[in-house]
Amino acid sequence: MSKTLRYKMMDHRLTGILAGLLLLAILAGCSAKRHIIKSPLKEAKSTYLLEQLAENELQFDWFSAKFSIDYIYDKKLTEFRGQIRIQKDSIIWLSFSPALGIEMARLK
Hints:
Blueprint: H1 3-29, H2 46-55, E1 62-73, E2 76-87, E3 91-97, E4 105-107
Antiparallel strand pairs: 1-2, 2-3, 3-4
């Protein structure tokens, strides 16, 4: 078989696959709309809501997070990165690094 014949066969096969994928996408995208059934909200007592809040409260001894701040003043952009660490009922650390990861300030 010559190279041109092989390329034509591959071209036809590729065209068929692409046409099939396009048809599949069209059929999947044109499905009927599903209607959402909305039921009225049930009123809950305040004691129930407070109990649910207490059950889902974030429980921790230590908390640590990184943050990024973009500060614009007089059309100048300054970027800060930092880290916050909290020991429950004790201390809060804030660490700021404005550039190159070099620590600028630490608050305790």
